[in-house]
Automatic annotation (TrEMBL), chain A:
One of its GO terms (molecular function) is 6-phosphofructo-2-kinase activity. Gene3D superfamilies: P-loop containing nucleotide triphosphate hydrolases (3.40.50.300), Phosphoglycerate mutase-like (3.40.50.1240). Homodimer. In the C-terminal section; belongs to the phosphoglycerate mutase family. InterPro entries: 6Pfruct_kin (IPR003094), 6Phosfructo_kin (IPR013079), His_Pase_superF_clade-1 (IPR013078), His_PPase_superfam (IPR029033), P-loop_NTPase (IPR027417), PG/BPGM_mutase_AS (IPR001345). Substrate binds at R254, H255, G256, E257, S258, E259, L260, N261, R304. The active site is at H255, E324. This is 6-phosphofructo-2-kinase domain-containing protein. Keywords: ATP-binding, Hydrolase, Kinase, Multifunctional enzyme, Nucleotide-binding, Phosphoprotein, Transferase. Residues 26-247 form the 6-phosphofructo-2-kinase domain. It comes from the Eukaryota. Pfam families: 6PF2K, His_Phos_1.
TrEMBL record, chain B:
The keyword Phosphoprotein applies. It comes from Champsocephalus gunnari. GO terms for biological process: fructose 2,6-bisphosphate metabolic process; fructose metabolic process. GO terms for cellular component: cytosol. Residues 19-233 form the 6-phosphofructo-2-kinase domain. Substrate binds at R240, H241, G242, E243, S244, E245, L246, N247, R290. This is 6-phosphofructo-2-kinase domain-containing protein. In the C-terminal section; belongs to the phosphoglycerate mutase family. Keywords: ATP-binding, Hydrolase, Kinase, Multifunctional enzyme, Nucleotide-binding, Phosphoprotein, Transferase. SMART domains: PGAM (SM00855). Pfam families: 6PF2K (PF01591), His_Phos_1 (PF00300). One of its GO terms (molecular function) is fructose-2,6-bisphosphate 2-phosphatase activity.
Amino acid sequence: MSKKLTQNPLEKTWGPWMKSRLSQRRGSSVPQFTNSPTMIVMVGLPARGKTYISKKLTRYLNWIGVTTKVFNVGQYRRDATRSYNSFEFFRPDNEEAMKIRKSCAIAALKDVCDYFTRELGQVVVFDATNTTLERREVILGFAEENGYKVFFVESICDDLEIIAQNIKQVKLSSPDYKDCDKEEAVADFLKRIECYKMTYIPLDDNKDRNLSYIKIFNVGSRYLVNRVQDHIQSRIVYYLMNIHVTPRSIYLSRHGESELNLSGRIGGDSGLSPRGAKFASALGTYMRGQCISDLKVWTSHMKRTIQTAEALGVPYEQWKALNEIDAGVCEDMTYEEIQEHYPEEFALRDQDKYRYRYPKGESYEDLVQRLEPVIMELERQENVLVICHQAVMRCLLAYFLNKTAHELPYLKCPLHTVLKLTPVAYGCKVESVFLNVEAVNTHRDKPVNVDVDREPAEALETVPDHI
Amino acid sequence: MRGSSGTKLTHQPDRAVCMTNCPTLIVTVGLPARGKTYISKKLTRYLNWIGVPTREFNVGQYRRDFVKIYKSFEFFRPDNEEGLKIRRQCASAALNDVRQYLTEEGGQVAVFDATNTTRERRETIIQFAEQNGFKVFFVESVCEDPDVIQENIVQVKLSSPDYTNCNTEEAVEDFLKRIKCYENSYETLDEVLDRDLSYIKIMDVGQRYMVNRVLDHIQSRIVYYLMNIHITPRSIYLCRHGESELNVTGRIGGDSGLTPRGKAFGKKLSQFLETQGISDLKVWTSQMKRTIQTAEALNVPYEQWKVLNEIDAGVCEEMMYEEIQDHYPLEFALRDQDKYRYRYPKGESYEDLVQRLEPVIMELERQENVLVVCHQAVMRCLLAYFLDKTAEELPYLKCPLHTVLKLTPVAYGCKVESISLNVESVNTHRERPENVAVSRMSKEALLTVPAHQ
């Protein structure tokens, strides 16, 4: 007895089930490896980068398709206490405050439970100091009761300069210190750290040998990794070991305008138009003006990105993984032709542009999986210029700017515009630099009517102009 | 990728990231029977497979070549001047070969497999590396579990050339005394004293790791790999989907369903797996109909991987070889000239496939018992990883339909059992023809095409 296989019309995946199941399927390109929900629990004194790591890790996991959320206990505390007075709140002998702090942690844990059971989250990052054995026991007990896996991430740093830098970057602008002058704030925060130091018990090599954890020393010069349990923990460890905090910028740009761009055709492997060549030259001038030491330049394997890089006159690396999304049977077509030959496909794409896979082609979801090694290497590197394509650039940008799968396929990445990304505080500063060379617009917004039975005119409403 | 030119000018690797600018010297550290050679060989196999020319240099082998006959553990006594002299000479000879491999033979990574248990010896190596412009990365294996050590001795030491004329008890006793010779002078990599070195310390077969100062991409990849491998006994089953409709018509690629014979294979596969009595078997397929149909017959949960899809033949998808010769004779000849690197127009090459499959290999290393239902080219790539085949051999590995390959790690390698499930099918294996010149006759090109409808 063989069940009949049907192919899901949106993602083009085969299965012995109909469309209804697919709403539960997450990530059709790669199997899901988390069975039980996982709690990543931060450990460390204040100003050791816990929130930085929490946010970054969450951004990465969400991007690769693992639904993740941060729960910052400090935020619960701010909501519960209305206004911050001074470091005295954090004194270990301040019983009233201890009560409040404990109830905040419990409230956060309750929300963690809701996130896992009601919102079907896969990973939670529990961002707090968690510096005492007692607090960690509470968390472990909670996790065991609920069947969650626990992975600790401890950040240990005694480099005073790094700590001072952290305080400057993210603490001075905290709501806790909004009415203080700089010196007062720093003095108070340092006293706050002292309060925690008195009761801080780091994860112990011996006593905690049965726990799963990574200890990060001095912003990554050393790591201690204990009992990695599964795939997701292994990926988390790999990611944490590749990120750094050295200041740098990442430049994202598309190739110069191509011949196929001009005629409104998607995909293919055409060369640059005259304006595209002009852009390449302008890009060279702009990059030289940035005066970057040791800039790495990456392109795809497609002619148009390579032609663009050639004009820069510097060494560059080609990545096949940076190739434009494969439009399968729709390669080299105009949107008008796609509407004519594949009206149903065209509508399905508008219904769910992230998961939609072209027949014999790829989806944005596939692209993200393909680009993960690029992101990992971008994290390792310092100053990099990536010359790529519209869909690819949208995926990379979504990672840096924490955009959802929903927003990703509609991010604006116009030709002849460089996006300069500079990490700052907990996020990324973006500068959009148009290099003053005209180009066609290739951005097609989501039309109002996405029904399969819509009129061609409705489908083609948002198609940008072309020859 | 052994056999490819080491200089980057002659061939633009698809693996765009320049793995290493200067060559890397990986140096193992640890007492005997701690898995250094196991790790060295495995790591070398992995790096070569992903396209980083790597070779291991086992100093013990140099000693065996020099001393010819091993008498006893006394050779390793720290007060045996003669023994020390010979051992130092062997280390130097090995380092000399390392230098030649990395500077003249296009090697990118050399694995220096020896105990290297004293700071003094490691300092010598560091200076050697500095003189030659090599980066150094230490891999230390620390283990005090007597069961693990005993198992190691049984698995790989008893069969060593050193003990060919000993019985088991004598060999074990001698080897334990040998370990003792090293113990007194053993200086483990130290958090403080060695804080400027780049290394990974593996403790208790991977329960815990200490990683210090990872300098570049290749070291980061090495650490990730080492942290994912394990030695728990298990088997990996590789097979192709059952015979497909396109298979019988001699067409490549496409996304067709199974023939009746192909479906019969699915049933036989299910029965076979039952006889294997495997606890907790994971089943993986591609996202193509034919592998999924095959897995469906097993009536167990399975996971679909898009990266397990068959090689994309681009413009040649769904063509017969005769049609390819007809429409693209030049392409057909180029493919025969270098089947590993050849990329179909708008398609992929075997080299691309390997890159695509790397996460599968990584996850296979993490897992235990797994059945992978895939495709001919994909299976060749996976098999080449486990059996340490070169890029030249890989595209011609025999992976017939309706045959399961059971791979079981043993000692330093992999035992392969080929099990044909006795269901007839077409042959899809095309050997390399004699004449690969672009100017060849059609007949010469099609000489090795297997029979089909």
